[in-house]
Automatic annotation (TrEMBL):
InterPro entries: FecR. It comes from the Bacteria. Residues 1-22 form the signal peptide. Residues 56-140 form the FecR protein domain. Keywords: Signal. Pfam families: FecR. It comes from Treponema bryantii. Residues 197-236 are annotated as: Disordered. PANTHER family: LIPL45-RELATED LIPOPROTEIN-RELATED. This is FecR family protein.
Length: 245
């Protein structure tokens, strides 16, 4: 009996020694129709709402959101859907893993003193891992560095710990048809009149201070039945948009 008690105590010490804490993400800006899938239903999100690990967030047409993920920030452009696959802090390390199903995200990763940040955004075939502070990744697997350095790779190589391509600020790259990262290209910007925002509006507002920050437009076409504004992708369109400073 004494030996069994010792094993139990040792197991408890191991559990507490790892110091793993689940974290929540906080919505700090909403424009248009932004929803979370929770309990089998789509629920409208507002500024100040919490989003937990494994939950899926969706934005509608002409809709955007800003989410504080631990100490970092993610902007969601229109018609974007993400799932927060990992959201925790362990042994002074923030662990964030976001799956981008459709749309465009911008990540601004903040490095806090004495803390390490493991921050990844991935699609079905590509992985962007934080080495810097600011980048955009979309569902066509195109990445654009806005600040610092980002490591970019296909998911298979990343799973085998094969180093990826380092994307610097003002560089663009993507995965080709064979899931290889194309050579980086500097200062290439494509624009289209019908596309005026891809995580850019929310990004420029920085959440709390800009015009319209924190406001929410009532969801249209069914409200909580939502997620319906996010269509499944039917083709590949590559658009790289230069955000305002």
């Amino acid at each position: 009996m004494r030996k069994i008690k010792s094993i139990i105590i040792a197991a408890v010490l191991v559990v507490f020694g790892t110091s793993v804490f689940a974290e929540d993400a906080t919505v700090t800006f909403v424009s248009g129709k932004v929803e979370v899938q929770r309990g089998g239903k789509w629920i409208a999100l507002q500024k100040g709402d919490k989003v937990a690990k494994a939950e899926t967030i969706s934005t509608g047409f002409q809709s955007e959101a800003k989410i504080k993920i631990i100490d970092s920030v993610m902007y969601l452009g229109p018609v974007t859907r993400i799932t927060l696959e990992e959201l925790s802090t362990a042994n002074q390390t923030d662990n964030v893993n976001v799956y981008l199903k459709t749309g465009t995200t911008r990540s601004q990763v903040k490095h806090v003193d004495n803390k390490r940040v493991n921050y990844q955004v991935h699609t079905a075939v590509a992985v962007a891992s934080c080495r810097g502070t600011d980048w955009i990744l979309d569902d066509s697997n195109t990445i654009k560095g806005l600040g610092g350095t980002v490591e970019y790779n296909d998911t298979e190589s990343a799973s085998r710990s094969v180093g990826g391509v380092l994307i610097q600020a003002n560089q663009t790259a993507k995965l080709d048809d064979n899931n290889n990262v194309t050579p980086t290209v500097s200062n290439v910007v494509s624009s289209a009149e019908e596309v005026n925002s891809t995580a850019a509006t929310a990004g420029s507002l920085e959440g709390e201070g800009g015009a319209g920050a924190g406001t929410e437009v009532a969801p249209s076409n069914g409200g909580n039945n939502g997620g319906g504004d996010t269509p499944e992708p039917t083709g590949t369109v590559v658009i790289t948009i230069e955000l305002p400073e």
